[in-house]
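Pasting as-is:
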Amino acid sequence: MDESKDTVFDEVMRKNAQRKEKQKETRKNFEESVDKGEKKLVCDVSSTGLYSLRFTGGGNLPDELKGKFTSIDRIRKMVVARYGKDILA
């Protein structure tokens, strides 16, 4: 077998590594935009009185901030614990 030719498996592994590197870069850029204050969390209130969060301009929420909440104070504490400051808009 010729050592210079890549196997299909090598190509798949290379593409996976490139995709993971791109995901890390995207995540890093997103976290930097949150730190700079470019991204803010918006707190929406449903008709049932429950609060939910989303980022301005889109973006994935961390697992602990997904879902519905009954207390805005609890949300603020969780946001400060996660990001080190209050980034609610």
